[in-house]
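Duplicate of earlier report; AraC family transcriptional activator of pobA input re-posted below.
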Amino acid sequence: MTTTGTIPVFKLYGETRHWPTPDLLHCESIPERSALHDWHIRPHRHADLVHLLHISRGHVDLELEGSLQPLAAPVVIVVPSMSIHGFRFSPDVDGHIITLARPLVEHLAETASSAGPLLHHAGFHALRDPGTERRIATLVTQIDEEYRQPAAGRARLLEALTQALVVQLARLQGVSGQGARAAGPQHDRSQQHLENYQALIEAQFRRQPSVEQFATQLGMSSAHLNTLCRRLADRSALQLLHERLLLEAKRQLTYTNMTISQIADGLGFSEPAYFTRFFKRNTGHSPRDFRLRQHASEATKRDTPGQAS
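Output:
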């Protein structure tokens, strides 16, 4: 675990491991993870992940941007990137946590105008209307089921279900006026610079600009950009670019029939051999072995009903 100041920066929910899937979202039940931590997830933040929590039973003491809020089910919690948050769940808690990777967050913000404000502001929504609670619970259950069981069109359906969930939450926020309470202070200038850099990565990663080129676009030196990334995201500027390249490579190896050469070319590598070395250095597997392992894993899941990812 590493820290920025006194607040840990985690790669995923309460952990230090890297993003564990080629999917752009991760879904699990709250008890799956929280029971391992004695129902207490200490305050931390993420550089490029957004959490959506749906609590259907029990209660949680939510620590969000310095405030403590006791919440009872049913409730939805939205935790954007860079928001300091922690949870103390009751042992009888039930519900799910859906974690969205930044590329999906940006795509949702582009395709659904209401998604941007929702996914970039921390807060919570009590689900007082039974009809609204039923619709949200149904969508969360469908996302969880689709995430756990590979099937044709899975990635597209997960995206559509997530978009529907975000629209429902945005409607809820609109009905309740300000909606998400306890949003905390505005991002400071450094955080805005990091968000701008992440947006540039998303738009340009396939061309693999140099850190110096990115820094020039941001109006700062490469040394300043690296310092900012290490302080806020616990990674260098180049590591953030490489993580996005790696995620896209995993997705294409898993979900397309493109050749290794085609994938390498599409991701800005001048030679397939360079791409293979990059991929193996970061995953421990060659692109070909990774693809075979993914396909074997999916075949096993299809032959084992109910097995989780």
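The first strand starts at residue 3 and ends at 4.

Merging into the original ticket.
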